[in-house]
Structure formats: structure tokens, C-alpha cells
Amino acid sequence: MARIILAVDPYGDIGIDEIIARINMVKEYIAGVKIGLPLLIRFGLPGVKKIIDLARDTEHVILDFKLADIAPVMISTIEPFVGTGANEVIAHAFIGLDGALKEFKEYIDSYGLKLILVVSMSHPGSTDIMEHVLDKIINVVEKLEPYGIVVPATRPHIIQNVKKKLLSKNIDVKIYSPGIGVQGAKPGSALKAGADYEIIGRSILYSPNPLEAASLIARIHDELVRRR
Fold this sequence. Notes:
Helices cover 47% and strands 18% of the residues. It is of the alpha/beta class. The chain has one domain: Alpha-Beta Barrel (TIM Barrel), CATH 3.20.20.
């Protein structure tokens, strides 16, 4: 079982065809893709839909458009992608329920899309605010019961803490962890802490040899899963 979610964001002057070629190189090693807002801005709806079409035979085709707004705005952002083959959507948990996540989840549920909530982030500044309100964010997760949550690989103790709190409440969610590679976390470290998937972008997609990078990380993942 693959544990890599490939973060697809454009850097430099790379074109959509080159991105597609690199994804094709590593498809056998990934569980899915996470399509970010920079790709939508750079290549528009046609570019995003090309990636969705390419990845529709993977388990996870995730839209990550930095959703942190009132429900109508988030709904109108996602609406063009309903029925395209994307099956999961990321939104921020800190915005709360009424007028925001509650109505948004009802909308995407009606189309069979799964919600993933950002609980904490992988950059250092996240510790200034998000970790101080972690219990409140977990309360949002408890009430909304999303399919998954995003917790950073850069702080494995947060993965362990969040997973422990949710299991104590009998809440079973998939844990997706970004921050592997360029941001400092080692491949496999999030899985070891209890995550289900590691979100990895630049370390694979912009490696001199994407296939070699993906296969190496996949072997690390397989070994960790066997051990645990």
C-alpha cells in the first residue's frame, strides 16, 4: 500500500506537460496527489483538470485551495471541480463550524467528496498560534467528523498528541503529514509517529531523478509499516 501523497505545486518556469511527465514517472509509488492553489493560478482550470485526469486511478485526488472562509465562498471555489474526479478537499479547521465548515461539509458530502481539515501546519510560525488552540481545533474535528486531518511531520509530537486525543474519543480519521524533505522532516518520520500518509512535493517532483526519489521513500515506508 502506497503512503506517499504527491504535492503538485509549480516552481520556477516548469510547464504543465513537464509536471505531468514527472507524475507519470512516479505513479506506481504514490497513493494520490494534492493539487495546490499555485497550480490553479499558474495553469487555470484546464491545468488542474489535466492533473485530476492523470491521477483519477489513484486513491486520493486532493484539492488544496487554502480554504479558510465563509461557506458560500468555499463552496463557489470547489463547485467547478465537482464531478471531475477529485475526491477529497482540504480546508482549515480554525475557521469553525457555523457559517463555514458545517455548511461546506454538507455541500461536499452531497457530492461524495471527503473533507480533510488542517489541524496544524508544518512551518515554524504555526507554533505561535495554532498549537495554543489545538484543543479547540480538535473539538471542531470531533464535531465535524471529517475523513482526514493534516498534521505536520515537522512536529511528530503533535501527530502523537492529536492521534491520542482523537482515539480517546473514538474518532478514526486519516492523518496526512506534510513537511517531509525540504522543510526538514525525514521520510518515514510521520508514519512512525502515527500518520497514515506523508505529503511530499519538492523532494520527489523536483528531484534530479523523481523515480529514484519516490522508490527510495516508498521502500522506507514499506519497512516502517512492516515493523509497526
